[in-house]
From TrEMBL:
PANTHER family: GLYOXALASE (PTHR33993:SF5), GLYOXALASE-RELATED (PTHR33993). Signal peptide: none annotated. InterPro entries: Anthracycline_SecMetBiosynth, Glyas_Bleomycin-R_OHBP_Dase, Glyoxalase_6. Pfam families: Glyoxalase_6 (PF18029). Residues 10-121 form the Glyoxalase-like domain. Gene3D superfamilies: 2,3-Dihydroxybiphenyl 1,2-Dioxygenase, domain 1 (3.10.180.10). This is Glyoxalase-like domain-containing protein.
Amino acid sequence: MKRVTGIGGIFFKAKDPQTLGAWYKQHLGIDVQPWGGAAFDWNGPDNPDGVGTTAWSLFAQTSDHFAPSTAPFMINYRVHDLHALLAALRTEGVRIEGELQESEYGKFGWIVDPEGNKVELWEPPAGQ
């Protein structure tokens, strides 16, 4: 079974997300949008048509989105079959955090690594 197939997003906390986003936009050319992040479209051997994105997003320092982790970051990994992967991870003794969520943006699940970092797993919608 395929597990991680790529990085779907990088999220990190900032003392002042708007100011930091403006800095990244000015100095690195990242097209930070009003929602607080940017989407990088990509393609590759497994995705020659380039359908897919990697998200980059800033969160307020006070955000609890990464809880129970106290780390100031969270990485989102693209996966092939989230239901099967979560089942396999559960049998391997990996800590699953919360319930699987499904939306028009795909399927999302969370685990916690041995150092307490929350990791987001994302199965994109069909065709992405």
